[in-house]
Model the fold of this input.
Amino acid sequence: MSMSRMTNVFALVLTVTMGIIGTSLAANEEVHPMPFIITDIEGHIAELTINIEKISDRMRFLREAPDSKDPLIQEVRNLDLRGWELHQEQWKVQLDGLRFTEGLLRKVQDHPEEKPEALQAWLGRLKEFKETMNDYRQQRAGIEVLRIETEVKLIEQYLR
Done:
């Protein structure tokens, strides 16, 4: 799943969660979609966990590859590695947020009277989450630009 899609899914889950936590619906299971939302969050947690493991394998492979004698090839590899590291860090932040949200929802499911406190806790993390995701987006965009510029130099070098 791409970073932007994963961020969008996470933001959607968090937005729905905020609506559920903040709603005044009765905790009646026939009316309340809480179990379905928790199941959805569990699925996203599982998917992110797998993605983190897969990208760890890619990073390990790149780290273990012999260094290139060509400094431009080595720089492309280094930029790839840094991009993957940032991506992994971002996924870990998203995973932490989903686990936090899941915990809040389970708590509210068992103790509906704690919705106001849960909502405030969740909203407090949401602002920080958005800022963190924006920071990762900017860092990754900068690395992508550097990688393209380095790749252009590499191709020009071999075409001359």
In short: The CA atoms of residues 52 and 88 lie 6 Å apart.
